[in-house]
Design goal:
The structure holds two protein chains of two kinds. Chain A is an alpha+beta fold. Helix content of chain A is 21%, strand content 38%. Chain A is built from nine helices and 16 strands. In chain A, the strands form three sheets. Chain A has an eight-stranded antiparallel barrel. In chain A, helix 2 crosses helix 6. The radius of gyration of chain A is 38 Å and the shape is elongated. The termini of chain A are far apart. Chain B is of the alpha/beta class. Chain B is built from six helices and nine strands, in the order H-E-E-H-E-H-H-E-E-E-E-H-E-E-H. In chain B, the strands form two sheets. In chain B, strands 1, 2, 3, 4, 7, 8 and 9 form a seven-stranded mixed sheet that branches. In chain B, strands 5-6 form a two-stranded antiparallel sheet. In chain B, helix 3 packs across helix 4 and helix 4 packs across helix 6. Chain B is globular. The relative contact order of chain B is 0.19. The chains are: A alpha+beta, B alpha/beta. Chains A and B meet through helix 4 of A and loops of B.
């Protein structure tokens, strides 16, 4: 029971406090507008008496917003005498309601719109007396709609009322007004995002990443025969179409590369990639008891053709999206060691599997370079690389009788993150 | 994996929806304060000058009027029919004189990204009065009624297809009307409801009665939309 009472009391207090907050001042909508330092404020009303004193209002502004500098406030007599402006003011006061956005309060008459456009850095403060509250709207030269509108509670004390308006509608960051010359200069200045595309952009970089045989978003059963295969007796696997039948496919990958783009569109990249793959020996096979380790270093060099498109979302950063296709040569350097004390190794060891001297393959992929301050880049790239038979070997009449090339269909997916330095030579 | 596929499907479906809906338009616009459609009391303006007859030769031949006078006779007939129908619909109908909006500038109202409707609207802060000085609370401003055969409102109001030439059609399937209008709040001088409606009426033999029936169909369409537009 006691708790219910306290709950009711709490609710009453909450309602009373929100109600008083609403009645004190209420902002219907607010859009971005610039409050100038040393603002020139024109007070506009069609009521007989001005509820605030312009000079006192200036002091209120200074009290409430230290950054405003030396504002000037006066009534806008030329609008108060103009019949079109008077009609619009009456209409605005009639139509200003909570819930309506600024575009419902747009000035429609061409002459009224003209007047607003000619304000040139001055801010119009519209005030209409509605009995127990005041309607307030703010116009600037950028729009025929009020930038902000709302109400404040009416007070007999003009200074307190000025303070209320200043704290509700003018409590914002100020910007310095430009002089005539600066204005002129700004008009001819290029956009801050304006940038010429360099004829040539070059970069060098170093990246670390990861590669695996399974390409994401493809069925795993495309690769499971290769990935899950193991090597028995130094050479026997289920098949030999892919090198991943013999060596581990998921490894770290390191790349050293340099490239260049012409006219922000087409370019190339030369690279060297290295990764180390251990042989997947079948541990149940006793023949490996003599073996200390058996690995292959994968060395690849190649060339990519790139197409790029550049975006500049912020001034400090450029984003170069790119796609690439390329070719590469892969070399496998065997590193095998028998245990200490084993002199010769088994017969199977001596007749172990040999890979081709060189594989030729292709790459396809894409990525993005994020370049900060025109020089410092972070890049992300992903793609698919293959290694196949060396097509440059001469066909022989008995080609059909030759054994199939080991690892002629060695495909993997890679992803890497690189650090780059860019320059425009 | 499964969730990614789901996401991809959703993406494709939504892309299809977006492209599929690209050709549907919003043909009306309500003010947030339009709460109740006019019921008994309404003022009407602009009807006298609103009607335009396209394919006047086609109408002239079938209504057995000379080509020179069909425009005048036809539009007069339609305007009379519309006012009569409106009188039947609203018992306190006030018909504003032709010059009520004479000084108002022509403005466009945006109904949709590509649909702009043109018409005269009274100035902000100025109430419209009839010749006796009465102030009607709400006025139906009829901007334009285009009467013709097989008309599509897209080709008149979508600026991106407005200038496309339509194929010359000899056999008319429908007589049609495109009407643009605004329900005007005269007290607060704001548009409450603006719309462009299209009315199609299958025609076998063209008579004055058919034209009268078309106008009655226009009025019922306007009334229906005024009712639907209120929030």
């Amino acid at each position: 029971m006691k708790s219910i009472k306290s709950l009711i009391l709490f609710l009453l207090i909450a309602i009373a406090s929100t109600a008083s907050a609403v009645s004190a001042s209420d902002v219907y909508f607010e859009s971005k507008w610039t409050l100038w330092k040393d603002a020139d404020i024109l007070i506009w009303t069609i009521d007989k008496d001005l509820p605030i004193d312009p000079r006192e209002f200036c002091l209120s502004l200074k009290r409430n917003n230290m950054a405003i500098g030396e504002p000037k406030c006066r009534t806008v007599g030329e609008w108060e005498r103009d019949s079109i402006a008077v009609r619009y003011a009456g209409w605005l006061s009639n139509n200003m309601e909570p819930g309506l956005t600024s575009n419902y309060l747009k000035a429609r008459h061409p002459s009224m719109r003209g007047k607003i456009q000619e304000l040139e850095d001055r801010i119009v403060l519209f005030i209409a007396d509605k009995g127990n509250y005041l309607q307030v709207a703010i116009f600037d030269e950028t729009s025929a709609e009020p930038r902000t509108a709302g109400t404040v509670q009416k007070k007999a004390d003009k200074i307190a009322l000025g303070d209320e308006i200043a704290s509700t509608f003018f409590d914002r960051k100020t910007s310095r007004r430009l002089s005539k010359e600066e204005r002129q200069k700004k008009l001819t200045e290029p956009d801050e995002y304006y940038k010429e595309v360099p004829n040539l952009r070059a970069w060098g970089g170093l990246s670390a990443g990861y590669a695996q045989a399974h390409v994401p978003l493809t069925p795993y059963n495309w690769v499971h025969r290769h990935v899950e295969s193991e090597v028995r007796n130094y050479r026997i696997t289920r098949d030999s179409v892919s090198l991943w039948n013999f060596i581990d496919d998921s490894t770290p990958l390191f790349t050293l590369y340099a490239g260049a783009i012409w006219y922000g569109f087409i370019g190339g990249e030369i690279f060297y990639r290295y990764s180390n793959h251990t042989v997947k020996t079948d541990n149940s096979d006793t023949v490996y008891q003599e073996l200390d380790h058996w690995e292959f270093g994968q060395h690849e060099i190649g060339l990519n053709l790139m197409l790029t498109k550049t975006y500049s979302p912020i001034k400090l950063m450029d984003i170069h999206l790119f796609g690439f296709v390329g070719f590469q040569y892969s070399f496998y350097a065997e590193d095998i060691q028998l245990k200490k004390g084993v002199e010769l190794g088994s017969k199977a060891y001596r007749a172990r599997i040999k890979f081709e001297d060189v594989y030729k393959g292709a790459l396809i992929g894409g990525g993005s370079q994020f370049v900060f301050k025109d020089h410092y880049g972070v890049s992300l790239r992903t793609g698919i690389a293959s290694r196949g038979k060396n097509v440059y070997s001469d066909p022989t009449p008995d080609a059909a009788a030759e054994p199939t090339t080991i690892g002629a269909m060695t495909v993997d997916w890679f992803i890497s993150l690189g650090l780059e330095y860019h320059w425009n030579p | 994996m499964g969730s990614f596929v789901k996401f991809l499907t959703m993406l494709i479906v939504s892309a299809l929806l977006v492209t599929g809906c690209a050709d549907s338009y919003q043909w009306s616009k309500s003010h947030p304060d339009y709460k109740q459609a006019p019921y008994v009391e309404l003022a009407i303006a602009g009807v006298q000058d609103a009607f335009v007859l396209t394919r006047s030769a086609w109408f002239a031949k079938r209504l057995q009027v000379s080509t020179d006078s069909i425009q005048i006779l036809g539009t007069q007939f339609c305007a009379q029919a519309m006012l009569k129908e409106m009188k039947g619909a609203y018992s306190k109908l006030m018909i504003l004189p032709e010059n009520a909006l004479a000084n108002a500038p022509e403005e466009s109202q945006k109904l949709d990204e590509r649909i702009f409707m043109k018409g005269k609207l009274p100035e902000q802060g100025v109430v419209v009065k009839d010749s006796a000085g009465n102030v009607p609370p709400r006025i139906l401003l009829v901007h334009e009624v285009i009467v013709g055969t097989d008309l599509n409102r897209e080709s008149f109001f979508d600026y991106s297809v407005m200038h496309n030439e339509s194929p010359e059609r000899t056999a008319a399937k429908n007589i049609s009307a495109i009407v643009s209008y605004t329900l005007w709040d005269n007290e607060k001088q704001r548009p409450l409801f603006s719309a462009v409606d299209e009315i199609q009426r299958p025609v076998t033999i063209m008579t004055w009665e058919e034209l009268d029936a078309l106008v009655r169909q226009i009025v019922s369409e306007i009334r229906k939309n005024l009712y639907m537009g209120a929030k």
